[in-house]
Structures are given as C-alpha cells and as structure tokens.
Amino acid sequence: MLEFCHVNISCSFVPILHDISVRFQKGEITTIIGPNGCGKTTLLQCLNGSSKVTAGSIYLDNTDYLALSLRERARKLSFLPQVRTIIPTLPVKTLVEHGRFPHLGFARRKTQKDVKIVESAMNFTQVSPYAAQYADTLSGGIRQRAFFAMTLAQNCDYVVLDEPTTYLDLNAQQSFMDMLLQLKEQGKTIILVLHDIGQALRISDTLVIMQDRKIAAIATPEACLQQHIIEAVFDVHIKKFSDEEGNYYFFS
Amino acid sequence: MKSSSVLKKFLLLILLLTFCFLAGILLGSVPLSPKSVLRCLTGLDKDTTAYILINTVRLPRAVGACLAGMGLSTAGVILQSVMNNSLASPNTIGVNSGAGFAVMLSLMFGGSRTLGIPVAAFIGSLIATLTIYGLAYMADSSRTTIILAGITISSFLNAGINTIKLIDTDITINLTTFMIGSLSGLTFELLRFPATAILAALILSFLFARSINVLCLGDETARSLGLHVASVRLILLILSSILSGCAVSYAGLLSFVGLIIPHICRRLFGNDARYLLPCSALLGASFVLICDTLGRVLFAPFELPAGVLLSFIGGPFFLYLLFQKKGGRRINA
After folding, report:
1. CB contact under 8 A, B224 and A134
2. pLDDT tens readout for residues B268-301
C-alpha cells in the first residue's frame, strides 16, 4: 500500500498542494481524475523527486518512502512521466534497457536476468519487432509502448503512470488499458492519471477525484456514480449503458 | 548495435590512433627513420640527436596532442548530453575562453606553468561552465539562447585575453598561437600535471557513461529511473571543466575538436555514451595528432599551429555534416 499522510507538496519552491492524505491499495488500479490544473501531476511527481514534499510523510508498504534514495525508490516503484520533450535517438531495445538502470551499479554489469526482464517487458508491450529501430523514427503509439516497456523493465510492484494515453489514438488507448488490466492480474499495483473519465470508470478499482488542489473524493467507480461526485466536479451529466462486454459511459 | 560491429569499429579507431601517433613521431622538419625511432624508444640509443629530438620534442608533443584531443572531444560529448544541446561544446559555450582568460590572468600574476596555469585554467573553465549552465537553468532558455549566450561570453572573455596581453607586455606566451591553439614547445614537465588530470577525468567520465545515457532521456525520466540528476550533472560539469581546462592550459584555444568529433562519432556509433565516449576520445586524439603533424610537415621548417589546420579541415567537414542532415540519421538534439 502506498500511503500519503498529510502531505504538503511544492513545485520549484511554489507550494501547490496542502495537507493531502490518500491511500493507494495494493494490487488495485487506482486512477486519479480531475480538471486541468488541479494538482494531479504534482501529487505524483513527488514520488520521483520532481516536486518536493515539504511536510507530512509517505509510506510504501509501511516503510518511509521519502527516506529512500532515488535509486532505491526506482527499484520499488516505477514512474512513467507525462511530458517527454526529448525523444532519444536510441534503438528501442537500448531505451528499454535503461529500465534496468536502478538495478545496476558502477560495477554490476548486465546479467542474463536483466536480459530476460527486458525481453519480457518488450514482448508484453509488443515492441519486440521494433527492437532495432530508433525511437525517434517510430509513431507516437509505438514510442509510448517503448517507454512503457522501459518502465516495466524496472520490474517494480508499483507502477505509476501520468496520463499514459493522452496522445494515443482510440485503438492504442484500448490496448493500453488491456495491458494495465493484465498487469493487475500479475499482482502489480497501478496508479495512474487519466483524462478520459469513461476509461477511468471502466478499469479502476478506486477513483481519486481531485478538485481545486484538494482531494474531493476517494471511492469505487460505482459509488462515484451513485453519489454523483463526478457530475458535480466536472459539471457534466453521465449516462451509463451496459451490454455483455461491459459498461459504457456517455457524458453530456 | 551489434557488439561485434562496435568492436570492429573500435579496433579500427585504435589502429588509426596508433598510426597517427607513430606518424607524429616519425614526421617533422627532420625526418627520422622508423628504425632509429624504435631504437630510441626502446632506449638502445641514448646519446644520438634523434633520441634527444624524440624525447624532448616529438614524444611530449604527440602525447600532448593525444590528450588534448581526447579531453576536448570527451568534454564535448559530456556537455552536449548534460545540456541536452547538440551545439554545446567547450568552444561554443565559452568554456575554452574561460580557461584561456584564466591562463592569461595567471600568467600576469606569474603563475607557474607546470601547476598554477593548469589549475587556473580548470577554475576558469568551471566558472564559465557553471555560468552558462546557471543561465540556461534559471532562465529556462531555449537551446539557441544558450549558444548565443556562450558566444557572447566567449567574445567578452577573448576581449579580456587581448586586454591582458596589451597591458602586460612581459607575458611570454605568443598570443596568436595561443588563441588558435598550438602544441609547439611542449615538454614533459609542462605536461605532467594536466596530463594526469585529463587521464583521471577521462576514466571517471567513462564510469559515468550509463548515467549520461539516462540523463539524455530528460530530467524527469532520469529521476524516475533513480538518477540523482542535480548531483550527477554537477559532477559531469566539473569533469568536463577538468578535461577542457587542462587541454587549454597547454594547447591554447583549440577549437572545433570538441564540437565536430562528438558529432562524427554520433553518426558512426549512435548516441549510446558507453561507445560514444571512448570512440570520441580515440577519434579526437587522432584528429589533433593529424593536424599537428601536418602543420609541422606541410611548410617545414615553418610551423602551422594545429588549431589552424583543425579549422581548415574541421570547418568544411562540419558544414558538410550539417547540410546533409536530412539524408543521414538525425543528430540527437
């Protein structure tokens, strides 16, 4: 379980979030949703040190997460950031191998185990056919899967994804959601930010709804719908349809 | 890239460097036969003029050229990665000028050429590096702005170099050759400290290759992978300052090596720093050796400073690289 206890967070010395407490249950998919600028990214960024925790504490499986070095954190929790201004001119395989970085020291070289983990991460995200191609020559969807493979190659129990599907087309978004569900079945804990509320309702076990830099609600998708929380926060009306394949949500 | 093809290219580069190094010792205004060189190097002839020539002139010069080339090109690779800017190099961001200015200042105050000047050069280049990096970081400036700032700082410092030379006419250094970069008159004594420092910094930079790779993914991704971005960046900037500062302290403002060699190597070996760093070092060393040797041979007994040939050969070549960008693989920027 990843637990934020009364946390204050600043970004470049500007306080953004105040007194945030939230728990992310182990083995679940928890999705953070909320209007733009409500602090979703800032909340997660403190996990990799890109935003700073100025008060409060964070516990990962009951150990003090903030006391860990960045390298130790990267062995327990992998994080795929949202913005990528830099697209490396590297072959996909080399890019994915970077995921092993936190596990390698100055002296320790790549072992058979590292090679296996990299391979299975590439197979899982279906980027193996592009192993030798350069990341900057690939389409956005495949590139995103390559970065995802890098994150998975860290082989952590906790996977944090900041808007992983924002720049993907519908088909690619769908297959990304399928991958997340498979990861959950493998026992991973997944925490992500999504803008597509329909997707969030479909795949999440728990929704964390943020508004005005506060946590407005933490509840299951069903409870969120019944209590009309999403409708209040986003100022929309939701209609739900169901068939044998699952639930569909329409917003108006 | 397959490891076998990397190994092949790597061996070729080592061969090239060996060849250039030997050429640097054999060729010159007084040509020496390979046999006499071999006898001198193995210590069989100790009293011949050839022995004196090799040990006091050509060998230190070749070693100096080698290390200056290695230092400047490695510093180029590091700066490009740390600043995520393909135009960064010790020359374009004013680091060399910072070192040069410090050298002149230290000469004015009578710094010793064996220790004082290299240390001053390192400090000068570190201050210039940190200034540029600080500006880039604080203003969150675009890549072009950083290079413009670097060129401005360069010209400012070069003006400072000229002023010092005008004020203090006792300075023994030849300003023209210093500004262009030359290895003339190099001795082992002058080389001892900077050479040791360059070698040490080279080894340390190679150890950071994997961190450099991760740094190239951007700050946030690097942090997510567990890299302490701020401290690694500071260490790398210090290393690159040692490399370029020490090279400048005895070779002057050799331009271009630090810019074009990394780019050539990026095209030949890709952007993986584990290969890029050693290959840039090898190719950079070969390039400076070639230019220095040609400079001594072409108009013998007159000498063309190595920096002149670097610009003559390097300039057009770099233009060629820049404008055929569309065809080949893009330079990482």
Report:
1. no
2. 888 889 889 999 999 999 999 999 999 888 887 7
Q: Judge contact between A137 and A146, C-beta under 8 A.
A: no
* Cα A155–chain centre separation: 14
CATH of B3-8+32-323, picked from 3.40.50.2020, 1.20.272.10, 3.40.190.10, 1.10.3470.10, is 1.10.3470.10
Mutation target to probe the A interface, by most A beta carbons within 10 A, among B86, B221, B233, B263 is: B221
List, for residues A87-99, the tens digit of each pLDDT value. Answer: 788 899 999 999 9
- pLDDT mean over B125-131: 89
Instruction: Compare all CA atoms of chain A with the CA of B2 and give the residue at the minimum distance.
Output: A132
Please, which residues bridge with residue A30 across strands? A191, A206
Q: How many CB pairs under 8 A join A and B?
A: 77
SS3 content of chain A, % helix, strand, coil (to 5): 40, 30, 30
pTM of the full predicted structure?
0.87
Phi then psi dihedrals of residue B247, to 5 deg:
-65, -45
Work out whether strand A189-193 and strand A158-162 pair parallel, antiparallel, or are unpaired.
Answer: parallel
Residues 6+ apart with CB under 8 A from B285: B17, B20, B65, B66, B67, B69, B70, B73
Q: For B332, name the nearest residue in chain A, comparing CA atoms only.
A: A89
In this prediction, residue B55 carries a pLDDT of 79
Please report, for chain B, the start and end positions of each structural domain, with discontinuous segments joined by +. 3-8+32-323
Asked whether residue A107 carries a pLDDT value surpassing 70, the answer given is no
Contact B220 A48 (CB under 8 A): yes
Q: Average the pLDDT over A236-243 and give the result.
A: 83
Q: What is the ipTM of this complex?
A: 0.89
